[in-house]
Specification:
This protein is an alpha/beta fold. The protein contains 5 helices and 5 strands; from the N terminus they run H-E-H-E-H-E-H-E-H-E. The protein folds into 2 domains: 30 residues; 120 residues, 3-Layer(aba) Sandwich (Hypothetical Protein Ychn, Chain: A), CATH 3.40.1260.10. Helices cover 49% and strands 17% of the residues.
């Protein structure tokens, strides 16, 4: 086969793919959105910013009739935000969960285990939280699944 012809076909396909995607979007197909928020600081203001980011993203996409999946992942000192005994933002988390029931809260088990060892007692996680094996790995997995990564 003629190499120029192959090059032209591949170039045309590369140009057409994004156009086809735009055409599908224009035809009414709505792409689901995915947002991963990273909290690694024991700072209520940082967590409140993450909660506000989640709420604002949900509100905007909801107004557009588009789906959005949101997960806030906490590890290191940020795990305090999801600890039932130390979280200063439990009311804000509960309020967000009422408004956006599908928002997920990932709590790093590596951090939890280290805290338990250091403190000599179990570390309770808020009912809205889900234990994930490792916070950083969870963020990697979410990005591999197409989640946009944001660190407030």
């Amino acid at each position: 086969m003629n190499r120029r012809w192959i090059f032209k076909v591949l170039t045309a396909a590369a140009v057409a793919a994004p156009l086809a995607d735009r055409s599908a979007m224009a035809a009414g197909e709505k792409k689901p959105h995915r947002l991963a928020l990273h909290v690694d600081q024991n700072d209520p203001d940082v967590m409140k910013l993450a909660l506000n980011n989640a709420r604002n993203a949900y509100d905007l996409y909801h107004e557009r009739g588009e789906e959005v999946a949101i997960e806030i992942v906490a590890y290191g000192p940020g795990l305090h935000m999801l600890r039932d005994d130390t979280s200063p933002v439990k009311p804000e988390i509960r309020e967000l969960r009422k408004r956006v029931p599908q928002v997920a809260f990932g709590a790093c088990n590596n951090t939890k285990t280290a805290m338990e060892k250091r403190e000599g007692k179990p570390v309770p996680i808020i009912p809205e939280g889900t234990i994930v094996p490792a916070g950083v790995v969870r963020l990697v997995e979410l990005q591999e699944q197409g989640y946009a990564y944001v660190k407030p």
